[in-house]
Design goal:
Elements (H helix, E strand, L loop, with lengths): L28 E7 L5 E9 L6 E9 L4 E2 L5 E4 L7 H18 L6 E6 L10 E6 L8 E12 L16 E7 L2 E5 L10 E12 L10 E8 L8 E6 L4
Antiparallel strand pairs: 1-2, 2-3, 3-4, 3-5, 6-11, 7-8, 8-9, 9-10, 11-12, 12-13
Length: about 240
């Protein structure tokens, strides 16, 4: 991954607000769909129900971890506005739209969590430790530390001060002593971001084979009229 990845913000680091179907304080859920066998491609789904409107939505993202950009025509976004539409229907429609692309990218290797900051843990999400899983009851090996810092940053072509008095924020991500990413400006597609949290670390489940492709999942909280929304950003830290 490029250490100064600001130019990629309009691609990989743009949160799902690029096609976000919700703007009203909803908390999107995260579902990893897997990796390609060579670890180059990673796909995930985010889904939920809008506060206020009650519209169910789902978005599937596919990412080229080596090129640090979207892949296969992603993201594939669905929002159902018909009365009685269900979240299951929205997710099924998004899955159908993404099916061909995920098959072409060979997204077949399941994802394994190395760390997870689950919603019920009450963790501020600014640090997260992870390592290589040990055998059986063995402790993780090669433990590393992720750190996330936030700071005021301007949003490109977006008058955030017209919507909220809270400062819009960019973020910097470090792995041990190495900086992986630092915002200079916040891309317009990310919205008026009010905060970020480390959500998890995933790698391909390989069943004995060593495949690169570790990704950090960062939650981003853009301004919403009924409270901060939540979307997700995937950042590669181990390229194929």
């Amino acid at each position: 991954m490029r250490l100064n990845a600001v130019p990629a913000a309009s691609a990989l680091l743009a949160a799902s607000l690029l096609t976000a179907p919700a703007l009203a304080g909803d908390r999107a859920m995260f579902n990893p769909l897997g990796f390609s066998p060579d670890g180059r491609y990673f796909a995930f789904e985010e889904y939920g129900v809008q506060d206020g409107s009650g519209f169910p939505y789902a978005t599937i993202h596919a990412i080229d971890l080596k090129a640090d950009k979207w892949a296969g025509g992603a993201p594939f976004a669905v929002r159902l506005e018909a009365d009685g539409a269900t979240l299951s229907e929205a997710r099924a429609k998004a899955a159908g739209a993404a099916k061909s692309a995920l098959a072409t990218l060979h997204v077949t290797a399941p994802a394994e969590y190395l760390a997870l900051n689950a919603d019920g843990e009450g963790n501020p999400g600014k640090t997260l430790r992870f390592g290589t899983p040990g055998d059986g009851l063995g402790e993780p090996e090669d433990v590393r530390l992720l750190g996330l810092d936030t700071f005021p940053a301007a949003v490109v072509d977006t008058p955030c001060a017209d919507y909220t008095e809270r400062p819009t924020l960019g973020f910097a991500l470090t792995l041990d002593d190495t900086e992986l990413h630092r915002d200079i400006t916040v891309p317009k597609s990310r919205g008026c971001a009010l905060d970020y949290r480390l959500y998890g670390v995933l790698t391909p489940f390989t069943d004995g084979f060593d495949i690169p492709g570790t990704v950090v999942i960062v939650s981003v909280y853009p301004f919403g009229f009924e409270g901060p929304d939540r979307r997700f950003i995937a950042i590669p830290i181990d390229q194929p």
